[in-house]
Write the structure tokens for this entry.
Amino acid sequence: MADDNAAIHQVSHFLAALAHACETNLGRSSLSLSVLAGKKFGREAVQASEQTTDPFRAVEILRDALTARGIMWDFAPFAGDKGTVFEEDGKKRIRLEFHTCMVRNALFRYAHDQKLSLCYMSHGVFAGAMERVMPNTTVHLEIIHAGPNACLKDLIWEDAS
């Protein structure tokens, strides 16, 4: 078990170092590249999954699909102060809480800032997966709070037509 943890720590450190190098060399364009890579992975992760118009069911489908791939990512809808589903600027939103997050762990291992390319990659994973699970929608993920123990993000969707 100690060897497994050491290997995970090394991969996390390498991944964060790679992200840092991309951000340094490519600047803000590294964010869009990361979103695109994440979207591709997200679409593939739920390729054989059911489709739904219910965002809460879509979150479950995504979590189950990632778990089936061996990716444990602790996220769930957050009731909080906004309730469950709310609308803002004509777009529907649900707030998600992310507890144990592989991206946050990798960034902390390397001592690198949150809200940069690796966070954007996770946004892409969600957007790509949710757009496949919730057909005919455009999906975005917006960071509300990035913290050391958990992050809050709004999952935003609107009709693509």
Notes: The chain has five helices and five strands. The chain has one domain: 2-159. The longest strand covers residues 137-146. Residues 73 and 101 are 6 Å apart (CA to CA).
